[in-house]
Amino acid sequence: MKQKVLKVNQGDNVIVALTDLKKGDVVEYNGNKYTLLEDVAAKHKFYEKDMKQGEAVTMYGVLVGKVQYDLAAGTRMSTDNLKHAADPYVFRPSHFTWTPPDVSKFAGRTFNGYHRTDGRVGTANYWLFIPTVFCENRNMDVIREALHNELGYAVTEKYKSYAHQLVEAFKKGEDINNLDLSPTIDVAKNRPFKNVDGIKFLNHQGGCGGIRQDAAVLSKLLASYADHPNVAGVTVLSLGCQNLQVGDFTADLKERNPKFDKPVYIYEQQQSQSEEQLISDAIKQTFLGLIEINKFERKPASLDKLVLGVKCGGSDGFSGISANPSVGYCSDLLVALGGKVLLAEFPELCGVEQELIDRTINEDAAKKFISLMKAYSDSALRVGSGFHMNPSPGNIKDGLITDAIKSAGAAKKGGTSPVVDVLDYTEPAVKPGLNLVCTPGNDVEATTGKAGSGATLILFTTGLGTPTGNPVCPVIKVSTNSNLTKRMNDIIDIDCGPVVEGDKTIEQMGEDILEYCIKAASGEVIPKAVLLNQDDFIPWKRGVSL
């Protein structure tokens, strides 16, 4: 560790501990000395000067809270002495200018992706199963087990083998405590369809029982997944009587992409002779479809064809210092190369709205952002909650005391480029550059929404560790600190700990991240969430249940 503390922005009045500090320690930063009045764990903050009750606390250069009582310099920031506060925001004329980063290192670079007929390029080649209603989830599970096990996409073989060992030991009266997981055959090596990266399933709890608006939003979301450039073919299972009718889904699909030409096989259970017929027919027809999409091959594509979603979850006090700014620099590189970047999680943009509004190049888009943010905030307040309640116990324990602190650090993932468009949930990203996408902050709901707007890769930063993935969009895990990388290496792809330790700059780390993205987009490296079949999918249900 080259330094013990850090002041993120020179206008801040709090200082971040990069390592555990003890009461009575005297630390020096930029020629100033600070005496700590209590222990300050790594990732937490202390006040650099005496503060009066009600005085504003600034971090990342923005208001993040107000102190609740008089306190002295060197006091640790806590939920007791600081409460959330954020500046108001309005539309105002702005003359934002941006200096793109040097991208000469990436000029002319390509990735090997799957070219679709509409000009988009996928980073993977998947077959997708979609249920129009939760009643079909069980049938989907049966089909998944059959196809995954037989075609080499299952990742549970070692656990099945372990369970078998336990049963055999039990039958023989042997001690089971000494049994360990045994190495198993790599079933992926036996895949008959080498150019099919996976068979994915969108199990969900919607499609009926809620208000009609929920079914309508779900239909648009499912259509966006069917139209996703990483998807080559679709099998739809429907019950028949549900709110979300097959006709609604196909209409949304055509509206989204009038030139949609992928194979779509639809099966409705109430029109079939039996469950057995439904499942066997779906398996056979899908198998024939797999034969066809296996003929597709990866071919070079320019980097402007990448659509990068950026997300944080299980965040800690280092998120806004190491991983998020590094991902933000990667975002700036991709924008400068002509690609698209999607920044979402509207509850985690609380407090930085004005900066984003001022960076938005179109007045209509800026006002759309204001409208979406206020409507979302009001909906939370109406049920007795609010954005201020966003930080989780894990966030708070690791230094994210208020939502404004969490948000100011979270927004760093989007980099510094102009905002070219603002998208409501499920709206597709069509403009190159930084796009804001309205989603919840919830890990899975946010990644679900980003993929729905067209992300073909997602960079997911985490300080505490989360295994979240997505069915159709490879999710790359970026750790904020090296300790997490060592502890949970089975879910982490990239370590940004060297930024905290002073061994790498944010710019160097951002370039490393883009290099990894190029390899992942080409299928040269497989992110851990993909290897684990971490296919999380939660549609955002905006309405109430009936």
The shape is: globular
Strand content: 15-25%
Helix tally equals 15
Q: Biggest sheet: strands side by side, in what order?
A: 18-19-17-16-20-21-22
Major sheet details = 7 strands, parallel
Number of strands: 22
Description:
By secondary structure, the chain is an alpha/beta fold. 31% of the residues lie in helices and 18% in strands. The protein is built from 15 helices and 22 strands. The chain has a seven-stranded parallel sheet, with helices on both faces. A four-stranded parallel sheet has the order 12-11-13-14, sandwiched between helices. The chain has a three-stranded antiparallel sheet with strand order 1-2-5, with no helix packed on it. A hairpin with a 2-residue loop joins strand 6 and strand 7. Helix 3 crosses helix 4 (246-256), helix 6 packs across helix 14 and helix 7 (353-359) runs antiparallel to helix 8. The protein is globular and about 75 Å long. The chain starts with a strand and ends in a 15-residue tail after the last helix. The model has no long low-confidence stretch (mean pLDDT 95).
